[in-house]
Amino acid sequence: MLPRWHIHTDDVVTASPTVAGGAVYVGDWSGKFYALDLKTGSTLWTTVLGPKRTDGNADKHTGAYGTITSTAAVAQVGLRRVVFVGGGGSLYALDASSNNTPDALRVIWRYDFDPSHPTSHGEVESSPVVWSDAPGGPIVFVGSDANQDSGYVGEGVWALRAETGAVLWHFNPEAYQGKALFGCGNVWSSPALGVDPSNGDPARRAVLYFGTADCPDNSPTPCPSDNSDPKCQAGQQYPYNTRWQPFAESIMAISASTGAPIWSYQGHPPYSDSDDDYGSSAQLFTLPEGRDVVGEAGKDGLYVVLDRRTGSLVWRAPETGNGNLQPGFALGGFIGTTAVGNVAGDPTVFGGVAINTPVTYDSSGNPTPQAGGTVVKGIPGMQAFSASRGSNRWSDAQAYTYGPTSTANGVVYVGALDGFFRALDAATGRVLFAFPLGAPVSSGAAIAGSSVVIGTGTSESDLEFKTCAQAPPPLTQPCKQTPLNQTVNPLSDLGGVWAFSPA
Description:
This protein has about 500 residues and is mostly beta strands. About 5% of the residues lie in helices and about 35% in strands. The protein has a four-stranded antiparallel β-sheet, with no helix packed on it. A four-stranded antiparallel β-sheet has the order 2-3-4-5, with no helix packed on it. Strand 19 and strand 20 (about 300-305) form a beta hairpin. The longest helix is centred in the last third of the chain and has 9 residues, at about 475-480. The model is unreliable at about 370-375 and about 485-490 (pLDDT under 50).
């Protein structure tokens, strides 16, 4: 492959580009959203989302990451091409039907998932998915989280009418169980939609599969002073010894029509203090014997395969180590979403590995070896393993990555923190192509015909955000609310988008 074009963006691009109708759609951490010509990289139009927007569609939430980390979804809604993308703590619907649309009319609607707390840490890292053939018109689904914060009313998965932004339902894992909002219902993975119109059960004709985040002990944390959490009264503190519930740190299936749970699977011990989110999104595939399954990787380094109908375990195995540096803070395992392809008739999972560590540190700062069996593959940064059995197919000793993996036509694509974009043979792991992009990569590759498009740039803000939590109480909130800029985030100058085509 050869580079076709490159543009410099205002900040880092960790979302994966989306290609539709000859255009590339992607946003950066500053909140700037770009529509680019796929062939030339020329700008078709841009707009600004989040706190820098100057009309009534500004979003002021202060999440742990940049304004746009969500990969956009593009769908035809009526006569318009519409782009759906997270910006801060809101979901935006953008009119992409014309490059000449005035910016004041570019936003069709915005939905804030926590409007009563407009500067909370709510954020949309999840990438939306659209059910185009839904009864009554297209529906868009997306997850929402607040990076381990308690008291966030927007946590969970939302369904909104694509045309208007009207809420159809909101599934909050904790509220459904009658629990207080401890922070154990956050969803920053992206839901996978499985559609089966012939299913005799209307609730199962369309099903969403996703993983929930970790279930932290944030004590001591006071209940919201405005009584926005009905299970935690103002003047009291959250009772974290009661926080665990059946949907915490789980892989779930819920009805796309109603938001009602169908099943959940929990693979971690109750009240775990490990930072073992399911942030790598689920994949739907079929095993050789015809069994429909869902697979999802986690920050614990495990890959789990479940029966799509019942949620029963097919297999689970450690495919890489984890990166639990200390209780409540992990850097490793699988964070970027894995990809599923086919090698010699066997479904195969390909996944880039985040920063694994051989030891973890307890609350006193003492190093101890990782739990037995979790560091299983040394330091290779790319794993390929059978989706039927979990057995290793190949490993590649590339640099670690937070970015998702993509695969098409027998080739696996992944960017890494060393700044290289690689293409590997899906059957053998042999490196077919490696190109330096000049910046760490946490974006995933979008493949459209013979074109491959990927973003560049990676921030240190997760480390900064969690370091804030260790600051003395008077400094914790001011620290978290400090806007990201070049001073605290020097990598922000390295953002960009690259396009490649065959040599």
